[in-house]
Predict the structure of Peptidase domain-containing ABC transporter.
Amino acid sequence: EMNRISRPAEGIKKYSREEFLKIWSGVLILLVPEERFEKGDKTTGLFGRFFSLITPHKRLLIEIFLASILFTILGIIGAFYFKFLIDEVLIEGMNKTLHLVSVGMIVLVLFRVFLNAFRSHLLSYLSQKIDIALILQYYQHVLKLPLSFFDSRKVGEILSRLSDASKIRNAISGATLTVMIDTLMVIAGGIVLYIQSGILFGISAVLIPFYVLIVLIFNKSFRDIHRKEMEQAADTEAYLVESISGVSTIKAFNGEEEASLETEKRFLKFIRSIFKAVWLRNIQSSFQLVLTLVGEIVILWVGGIQVIKGAISLGELITFNALLAYFFEPIQNLINVHPLLQEAFVAADRLGEILDLKVEKENEHRKINLQKIKGKIEFRDVSFRYGTRELVLKKINLTIQPGEKVALVGESGSGKTTLVKLLLKFYLPEEGEILIDGFNIKDLNLDSLRERIGYVPQDVFLFSGSIYDNIAFGQKLNSPTQIIEAAQKAQAHDFINRLPLRYETPVGERGSNLSGGQKQRIAIARAILKKPDLLILDEATSNLDSITENIIHQTIEEICKDITTIIIAHRLSTVRKSDRIVFLGSSPD
C-alpha cells in the first residue's frame, strides 16, 4: 500500500510503508492554533508577483513585439522566393528577373539581420530594466527585515537569491515575449501552410499533441531538479562566504585542506545537480528533435507523392518545406521556454519566501514620533529569548532615571547586550514591556527612536570607504568641521592626521586597514556626531590602551552630563565612575 506524503521542497510523493519508515526520524510534531492564529495569504506566483515589473515598459514591449512580427513576415515573404524561382523564373528563363529578384532577396536578408539586431538590443535593454527593479526591490526589502531574520540565515543563502532573480528576469522578459510572439506565429504560420496545402498542413498539425506531451512528461522533473540546483548553489555560496570571512581562523589552525575539502564536497553536489538539469534538457531536446526530423521527412515523403500526382508543383513543395520553419520553430521555442519557466517558478518561490516576510517598520506613521528623549527608561518584567532557545532575560525589572549613567556588568551570556538591543527595538520582548519617557517602546516610531540613540556596539563594523564617510554614516548635512570635532572628542583626530590621505583614507573591507582600537574610536566619533539623547556603549573601549581609554571617558563624561548613558563593560576602570552598577546574572530555570 502506497502512502501520500507532502514534503515542502518536493511536493506530494508516494512512499511504501517500508520506504517511509526509512526516512522518518520517529518524531511527530503536532501544531495547535492559538487564539491569535490568523490565516495567511498563499504565496503569490511568478507572474502574479513579478508581472508588474514589465507594465511600466509597455512601449518597449510593443516595439519588440512589432519588430518580431515584421521579422517573421519578412521571413515568410522570403520563403516564396523558392516557389517563384523554380516555378516561374527557371522554367521561363527569365534572366533579368532572376538578377532583380535575387538582389531584392539579399536586401531583404540584410534588413532582417538589422531588424534582428535591433530587436536583440531592445530585449537586452528590457532585461536590464527588469534586473534593476527586481534586484533593488529584493535588496531594499531585505534591509527592511528585522534583525531576527539575519540571525537565522547565512549571508550566502541571502545573496544566492540575487542570482535567482536573473532566472525570473529571463522568464518575464524572454518567456513572456516568446509565449506572446510564438503563439501568434504558430497560428499565422499554420494559416499560411494550410493555404499552401491542406494535406501537408494536416500532417504538421498531428505533431502538435506530441510536442505538448513532451512538455507534460518533463514538467515535474524540471521543477524538482531546479529546486535542488538552487538550494545547493545557496549552500555552496554560503560556505564560500563563511570560509573567506574566517580565513584568519582557517590559517591559524592549518585548516586550509579541511576547508578546501568541504568546499569541494558542496561544489561537486552543486555541479551534479547542474549536470542532471542539462542531461534532462538534452533528453527533452532529443525527443523534440526526433519528432521534428521525422515530421519533416514524412511531410517531404507525402509532398513528393503529391508532386508526382501533379497536385502541387515542386516549387510549392520546397516553399512549404521552407515555411515549416515558421511553424515548427515557434513550437520548439515554446518547448524550450518550458525549462526556463520551471526554473523561474522555483526561483520565484525562493524569492517569495523572503519577500513575503513582514518588514520591521509597519504602520510607522501611526506611531509616536519622538522629537527628544528625556531619558527615563523602565524595564517591567521583561523576558526574552532568541528564537526557540532558553530565556536570555527573565522577568527583568530596571528603572533608569533621566541623565543617569548606569553600568551593566555580568558574566558572558547574561543578556547585557540583549538588553540594549531591546532598547534599540532590534527585537521585541517576549513578555513584559519597555517604557521610554513613559511611552511603550512598541508604540514609538522606529526611525525617531533610533535617531535619538547613539550606539557603539561591541563588534564595530566599518564599511569599505573613507574614514570621513564612516564617521558621517547615517547622518545628513554634516560639515567637515563637525566631523573633525567628533573625531577629536573620540581621540581619533591625531591618528587620522598621521595617515597619508587623512580623512579620505580608505578603511578597507570591514575596516581591515585599521587596528581594533582605531575602529572603536571611529565608532565612538560616529555616535558622538549624532548628538544623541541616549548613549549606549557596549564594550566600546575594550581595545584601547588605558591612557586613551581614560581620555575618552573624560570626553564621554563631558558629553553625557545631561543625557542617559548605559555602559556595558568588564573592566572596573570603565564602570567605577558610573552612578549605578547593575549586575545581570544567568537566567534561572
